[in-house]
Amino acid sequence: MRWRRPPLQHPLVPVFAPAVESLCTALAPSSKRYYNMVVRNFLVYLGTKHPEITRLEQLRRDPHILGWMAHLRAQNPPLATTTCIGRCFALRTIFHELARTSHLAELAYLLLREDIPRSPHTLPRPLTAEQDQLLQQEFMHRNDLGANVFLLLRYTGMRIGECVDLSYDGLRSTGPNQWAIHVPLGKLKTERMVPVDAFVRDLVHRLRFFRSLDPLPAEGRLLARPGSKVALLVQLRDYLHRVCHSLGLPTDIVPHQFRHTYATEMLRSGVSFPVLMKLLGHVDPAMTMRYVDVALTDLQREFQLARSKPRHLAPQPKTSTAPVRTGLDGLIDSLIAAQHVMEMFRRSLHNGNARNRLLRLSIRLIKILAEIRKLQTT
Q1: Where are the alpha helices (DSSP H) in the chain?
Q2: Is residue 185 part of a domain?
Q3: Residue 4 lies in a domain
């Protein structure tokens, strides 16, 4: 029997509940549960530390909101930074909704955006060359459902949640000996077409074969679900854990690292920044810039290799004989060159305010380039 917590007894519950209902009208049930959890956490704090608060008009930024944030930071064991960020964003959103529905404009200023902690800057974790090779060899050897799923992740850069949502007819022919996979709406509510080769085409055909052998009812998906989507995700993650254990690899390798490995490989192969954004389904250039930071290790290696060789043995750069373009084409060439020089200079700096400001300027140049390219079509 599933244990349920008793309903929260607080005078503000009838006020917060309609605000959550209004916010979650078009959201998933999990989002509604999260908002309700944050409201419960805040009202429990109020009832314990400030029992005199019974009306919205009594709420103040100090001590009620700032006190709650200090309470979050004082948890033992400490909450992860991302958890604190999520709860603060949720409560701030609820206060904005209450300000609108209760006609109390001051509620919108109880929790400011500046109060929310900054998300820690974590670099993607691509697999090492040895890990990547060992896993691919093992998947090829096993050639079962799980192995083909993870090979598909490795060679398309999909998120695992997107992979389990693939439709049975998601592989499309785009020309003679050319194919692409239609990736459905994913984490960022975007969909995309990812070009693939004959190897990935064969992976999809094998997954279709496994689907034809499964007795579960056909639902139009490439992968059959034993119960729910979550159950299938747990099953696939457990499969990867067992494979890594059998190979003597770290068992904390997660499916998302295949996406990082794919993105880093695309960068090293010369794929341009806008194309990589499209392949990964990113909507913000800053998300893709994280993969550029990963590739910085390659630049360091090449730099050290160049320094270790005598200067007279290093090949001399060739002078370009291409004519300088004019008009919009020339403007685009100049902006690309400026963005490249800025990015190279930024990488030479230590982490700090200057490096972060140059990153923002570099992203602005990318956006400007995208707008100027639109002018070419008009």
Answers
A1: 13-23, 29-49, 66-73, 81-101, 129-142, 145-156, 160-163, 198-213, 229-247, 256-268, 273-280, 285-294, 296-308, 327-347, 353-377
A2: yes
A3: no
Q: Is residue 3 situated within a structural domain?
A: no
pLDDT digits over 125-154, tens only? 788 889 999 999 999 999 999 999 999 999
Range of the domain at 161: 129-257+264-268
pLDDT, tens only, 269-279: 888 888 888 88
Per residue, what are the HEC states of 241-270?
HHHHHHHCCCCCCCCHHHHHHHHHHHHHCC
Is the per-residue pLDDT at 77 higher than 90?
no
Residue 181: other Cβ atoms inside 10 A: 25
**Res. 310: pLDDT tops 80:** no
The rounded distance, in Å, linking the Cα atoms of 127 and 257 is 6
pLDDT score of 16: 92
Q: At how many degrees (to 10) do helices 285-294 and 256-268 cross?
A: 80
Full-model pTM: 0.55
248, 142: one domain: yes
